[in-house]
Amino acid sequence: MSFPVDVVVMAAGKGTRMKSQRPKVLHRLGGRALAQHVIDTAAGLSARSVVVITGHGAEQVEAGLQAPAAAATQLKYVRQEPQLGTGHAVQQAAPVLADDGVTLVLSGDVPLTRPETLQALLALCAGEHLALLTLDMPDPTGYGRIVRGADGSVQAIVEQKDASEAQRAITEIYSGIMAVPTRLLRGWLARLDNQNAQREYYLTDVVKFAVADGLSVQAHRIADAVQVAGVNSPLQLAELERAYQKRVAEMLMVQGVRLADPARLDVRGELLCGQDVEIDVNCVFEGRVVLGVGVRIGANCVIANAVIDAGAVIHPFTHIDGEKLGVSVGRGALVGPFARLRPGAVLGDEVHIGNFVEVKNSTLAAGAKANHLAYLGDATVGERVNFGAGSITANYDGANKHRTVIEADVHVGSNCVLVAPVTLGAGGTIGGGSTITKSTPPGALSVARGKQISVADWQRPVKHKR
Ligand code: UD1
Ligand code: CA
After folding, report:
1. Catalytic residue, candidates 372, 402, 411, 464
2. What is the 3-state secondary structure (H, E, C) of 84-99?
3. H or E element: which one contains 271?
4. What is the position in ligand 1's atom list of the atom closest to the CA of 143?
5. Is the CB of 134 under 6 A from ligand 1?
6. Domains, the chain
7. What is the pLDDT of residues 401-459, one digit of tens each?
8. Is the backbone peptide bond immediately before 343 cis, with ω within 30 degrees of 0?
């Protein structure tokens, strides 16, 4: 674009039909606030600034949104109190808009507009014209209607409540999105009044001012309703969530990812996949997840903030959440079914973590295995260690966390308690059922449990006679 773009995001409305304490534009879609999608889209257009108009729940909204990462786009907030209509909303933003730019008006509750669509709208505006995004709707009830003249040119937008019978029959509607040269917008905003059925200042009245000023009004008419669909209720939110997930699934499949069923995938963040990744049904990905070449994810896994290296297999019903520390899974590792990897779990190549094993803040070197029913917390585990069923690190003394070091090739039997801080020397063996409170020497068999005794001819108690 040869002109700067300043985006105005309308987000002052109440969203009564959400029936929620949370301001509408903070409800999440694909793991991101509705208005955040709009801000990020604006940043993708290399907008100079994004001005979010807040009103209902303004403080919460302002705290809940972020300036787009790695973009030059400046994020600003303007308050609109009380809310006297969409025209009144944009009037509040006017002081922070510069006359050399084009103002692109978006809504904080319309998250799925494609950047290409907005580019096309800006191209129609070309820094000179008022350009409207419009859509044909089989049922246009409630929307502003696009009134065209005999020559097909746009003459006005008439709101549902102000429309005549004939105008209500028009199926071309205004999407709520327009691009307008800011110097023209400023003049038109000053001319708005609220002489209409709703006693509101309608932004849509700028169309009739443009026409009165002898300027042509452009319309970019699209067919894809999802792009202009707003969220007013939990039902609409869920519908758009599905539409969003379908888009993500299609994008992944275009890249070559094999999804068992694109309708049963939820990406609530960023999912980056190498070649030949396969994902079974009902998996949820959150935050930033990276899957290397040939990774396979079984059904019903929840994976957040993790990097999974090439060839690793995550079996069904595994829960991985790296939160802020992250989780990493090495090449060819096998995890699950029913495993849990928590923040700071770092698994080397070919590590095996089996059913009902929990790993937190622990490093497992290549080839280490904990195949059944175990807990490894705050542990450093060497290569090829075998950690037996039912064994745990007792890392917490009630006040502080301590580390357990298990050197290479140690074999920990079943049902052991390793009371940290403790170090098990390389190549050692820990007898099943041991409670280890002192470090053990390399190569030794260490056993710490009651000695087995047998009492001959043992008489079991018998029932008393009544
Ligand atoms: C508006 C348009 C209508 C269009 C429809 C598309 C006007 C007068 N009408 O309808 O032609 O078909 O959008 O959805 O513009 N908002 C504020 N402050 C206000 C009023 C609204 O910030 O004072 C925000 C709302 O939070 C919402 C957006 O503006 O994000 C649109 O408001 P809404 O009431 O949904 O649209 P309508 O006025 O019904
Ligand atoms: Ca309204």
Report:
1. 372
2. CCHHHHHHHHHHHCCC
3. strand 265-273
4. 12
5. no
6. 5-228 (3.90.550.10), 259-446 (2.160.10.10)
7. 999 999 999 999 999 999 999 999 999 999 999 999 999 999 999 999 999 999 999 99
8. no
User: Quick check: pTM over 0.90?
Assistant: yes
Determine whether the shortest distance from the Cβ of 218 to ligand 1 is under 6 A.
no
The full DSSP string for 352-411 is EEEEEEEEES-EE-TT-EEEEEEEEESEEE-TT-EE-TT-EEE-B-SS-B--EEE-TT-E
pLDDT for 55-78, tens place per residue? 999 999 999 999 988 779 999 999
With a 6 Å cutoff on the Cβ, whether 176 touches ligand 1 is: yes
CA 325 to chain centre: 18
Residue 221 CA to ligand 1 centre (angstroms): 19
Rounded Cα–Cα distance for residues 154 and 207 (Å): 8
Tokens in use for 324? Answer: 């802020």
- pLDDT per residue over 208-236, tens digit each? 999 999 999 999 999 999 999 999 999 99
Ligand 1 atom nearest residue 85's Cα: 23
Residue type, 288: R
